[in-house]
Design a protein that fits this description.
The complex is a heterodimer. By secondary structure, chain A is mostly helical. Chain A contains 13 helices and no strands. In chain A, α7 packs across α8, α8 crosses α10 and α10 packs antiparallel against α12. In chain A, 38% of the residues are buried. Chain B has 12 helices and no strands. By secondary structure, chain B is mainly alpha-helical. Chain B has one domain: MetI-like (MetI-like fold). The chains are: A mainly alpha, B mainly alpha. Chains A and B meet through α1, α6, α7, α10 and α11 of A and α5, α6, α9, α10 and α11 of B.
Chain lengths: 317, 275
Amino acid sequence: MRRFLLRRLGMSVLLMWLVASLIFLMIHALPGDPAMAVLGGGDASPTPEQLITVRAKLGLDVPLYEQYLNYFGRLARGNLGESLLNGRPVALDLGLRLPRTLQLIIPTVMISLLLGVPLGIIAAKFRKTWVDPVVSGIALLGFSLPVFVVGTLLVLIFSLKLKWFPPSGWVDFSEQPLEFFRRLTLPVVALTFGPLATTMRMTRTSMLEQLNMDYTRTARAKGLSDRIVIYRHALRNALLPVVTVVGLQFGNMFAGSVLAEYLFNWPGLNNLMFRAIGVRDYPVVQGVVLLSSVMFVLINLLTDVSYALLNPRIRYD
Amino acid sequence: MTWSRLVKNPRIWLSGGYLLVLVLLAIGAPLLAPKDPTVMAGASRLALPSAKYLLGADEFGRDILSRLIYGARITLEVSTFGVLIACVIGVLLGMAAAYNGKWTEAVIMRAMDAVLCFPPILLALMVVTFMKPTVTNVVLTVGFLYVPRFARIAHSSALAISQSDYVEAARALGAGNWRILVKAILPNIMAPVFVQISLSLGNAILLESGLSYLGMGPPPQIPSWGRMIETSSRFMHLNPHAVIWPSVAIAVTVLAFNLLGDAVRDTLDPRLRNS
């Protein structure tokens, strides 16, 4: 187990280094010059003095390898640079915005788990009836609906026509708890469709796989009821791949919520990034992409570790 | 034999038929669209569906149906070329990794893992921050982001096949590396790759329409479904048609690609066939 953990941890560190390097490379290898981008994009015609000042401010006036070392030196100390717009440390803003993005992601993942697993079991249990195609069809539809389409239609129906929920905005939970939940409802519902469909499908597939196994046949043969076979025997094994999928989704949602945050004007991480793009505030853009990617790596690490804890067969390979 | 099974599956001809019609509409847009999608008519702003505007008009008085038909062009263009690039590069990398093994495999597959860590839409946003959001740049971004999917599929499929007896036999007969890769391995990994193409096309459409929705996709003068939803959503209490139809177009098209990929996988995967 210790060897597994160490190897997995080493792999995650390697991945984070690769990701951070790729982001660094991308900023330097893309045809656009960051200093030019800061000064107004490809159409701008800044004076040479302006370019020199901005390059120095961004640390672009030293050789590339030195920039690379400086970049990791700063990252190691948790320094993500300062916003070009207002000079605030990027890490500070990320710390402020991250919880608000989590406010969207955590309920979404919880709901998709609490609804998706039972629905997946039902679909697998009633494989040969009309229930399975209906549930699977709904899942396929859920995959195919983008967040902004669901969100826009929800706003149209529940906010503009029925006036049950405000169309957008965020309030602090500690100040107005009820209003906070009113504003949380529509974005969370819009975000839930995709992950719910994935959880449902994964549960169904892996449940069907388990129900075809010899051990479930043996359990049935010795006269155990359907309930016990499904919930006590098959479900435990069937849930393992579901854990992985839920972990992956959790990681993906950091970015997936960008559309919901834009549509519902939710002041989270991605909203910050979006504004930064508009004014080409590239340390902020870089910070958000880096944070999202690192969260993705960390969540996958946690998923793998929990998988190994749940499934003794994994630990020894 | 496989082919006849594919054709008999109603999910395949249903989704395939829809996609064929969509492609034809996109190609023939200048002939088939009832109006010019960019012509504005002040008098018909937010017009409801009528004989003149079959699906109504948007906030500039532009014909929604014509914009939908033209919007199919950009959506299909970005997703098809993006996925094509990803497929060619990914399959080559995956096969090379599986065939060469050792450090080639380690380097390629770890690099793929790293690319997979990037949140697609954020990376795409970052790229268009530094480059202009042109059609080519969006295509290249989609291509880059989807390489790992194909590399992984090709790698795992090719791994099994490169140890098989007939590859060994081909090598014993003196076939070169290229010949083995192209003639012996490639045809045998095409089935999972094809499934991945279909699913990736659906996904690429979600990505493209999401970027367009955020105003970061292809330039605004090109009609696109995502942007139609965003710009018209401010007026949707007056004329919901301008938002509902592009939503339906995106959902049905992505659904068709997912359905096609699923159905092909079910048909080609012998383990699922009899259960």
